Amino acid sequence: MTLPTFFIAHGGGPWPWMNGQMRDFHAPLEASLRDMPHQIASLPSAVLIVSAHWEAPEFTVMGQARPGMLYDYNGFPPNTYEVRYNAPGSPVLAQRVQQLALAAGLPCGIDAERGFDHGAFVPLSVIYPQANVPVVQLSLKQGLDPQSHLKLGQAMAPLRDEGVLIIGSGMSFHNVGLRGPAAKTASRAFDDWLAESLQRSTGVDRAGRVARWADAPSGRLAHPREEHLLPLMVALGAAQGDAATRIHYEENFFGTAVVSSYRFDRTDATSLPIPTTVKPGEAS
C-alpha cells in the first residue's frame, strides 16, 4: 500500500500542554490532527517528518535510536519545558533517507544528537499520542530553495511504499508581525491561491506553480521568510501527481488568519468539511 503524504499546520508553541485561550484557539487544528490516523488504513512503520524549525547547511536526518527533546520556544509556562514525546527513532530509516537523498544528488548528513523540535513533537503528540510509531526528523536546507526541497521530496517517494508516513510540518500562513484585517486579507488571498494551485493542477505543472509561491497574491506577506512553507515542497515532491485534499481549513486562526492543511494521495477525494467548534481533548 502506498501511504499518503501530508502538509500540516503545527500551530503556535507548545499549545497541547496549555489551557485557556491558547488551547481553545487550536481546537479545529487539534481535531484535524487527531483525525489523521483514520485517513490511513494501518499504523505506519515509521514517520518521516520535516519541520519548519530545523535548518541545516545540507539536508540532515536525525539518526539516534532514542531522540531527546529540543524546547525551541520562549516565554511559555514551566510545564511546557518538561514535556516528553517518547517515540523511538530509527537509525535504519535514517540511513535509508540518506541513501535516497545521495542517490538523487542531494548531500545529506546524519545528526546523532539533535532532539525533536516543537514542529515535530507538538503535532505528533496529537496524531500519535501513545508515541508508538518510530519517528525520524529531516531538516530543511539553508538557502530555502523550493526546487531543492521538491527534489528531496521526489527522492523520498519510495518510502511511501515501505510503510513510512511523510509529513511536512509548517504553516500555510506565517507572519507573526501581521495582525487584524491585514492578516485576514493577506492570508485569505494566499490560501485561495494555494488551494487553487494544489487542487486544480497536478504533476510538474503543480510543482512548478507552487515553487513560484513568492509571485502568488500576498505571497511575501503570508511568508516574509519561507521556512514554514518549505515542508510543503517535500510533501508535494513525494506525492508526485497525487490528488490534494484539504483536511483542515479555518478562517480565524488566533482570531485573525486563514490557515489550511493538505493530504496528498491517489484518490479523487475532495475537500472535507472542517468542524468550526470542537471541544479540545487532552494530548499526551
Q: In short, what is this structure?
A:
With 284 residues, the chain is α/β, with parallel strands linked by helices. Helix content is 32%, strand content 20%.
How is this fold's topology laid out?
Elements: E1 5-9, H1 21-25, H2 27-35, E2 46-56, E3 59-62, H3 91-103, E4 108-111, H4 118-127, E5 135-141, H5 146-156, E6 164-170, H6 180-199, H7 203-211, H8 219-222, H9 230-239, E7 243-253, E8 257-265
Parallel strand pairs: 1-6, 2-5, 2-6, 3-4
Antiparallel strand pairs: 1-8, 7-8
Helix pairs in contact: 2-4, 5-9
CATH superfamily heading: LigB-like
Enumerate how many helices there are, as a single number.
9
Number of domains: 1
How many DSSP-defined strands?
8
Taken from the alpha-carbon principal axes, the silhouette is: globular
Helix content, binned percent: 25-40%
Element pattern in H and E: EHHEEHEHEHEHHHHEE
- The low-pLDDT segments are 268-284
The major beta sheet can be summarized as: 6 strands, mixed
CATH class: Alpha Beta
Assign the structural class, choosing from mainly alpha, mainly beta, alpha/beta, alpha+beta, or little secondary structure: alpha/beta
Note down, in words, how this protein is organized.
- It is a single chain.
- The protein has helices spanning 21-25, 27-35, 91-103, 118-127, 146-156, 180-199, 203-211, 219-222, 230-239; strands spanning 5-9, 46-56, 59-62, 108-111, 135-141, 164-170, 243-253, 257-265.
- With 284 residues, it is α/β, with parallel strands linked by helices.
- It has a single domain (5-265), classed as LigB-like (Protocatechuate 4,5-dioxygenase, Chain B).
- Strand 7 and strand 8 form a beta hairpin.
- It is globular, with a radius of gyration of 17 Å.
- Residues 268-284 have low confidence and may be disordered.
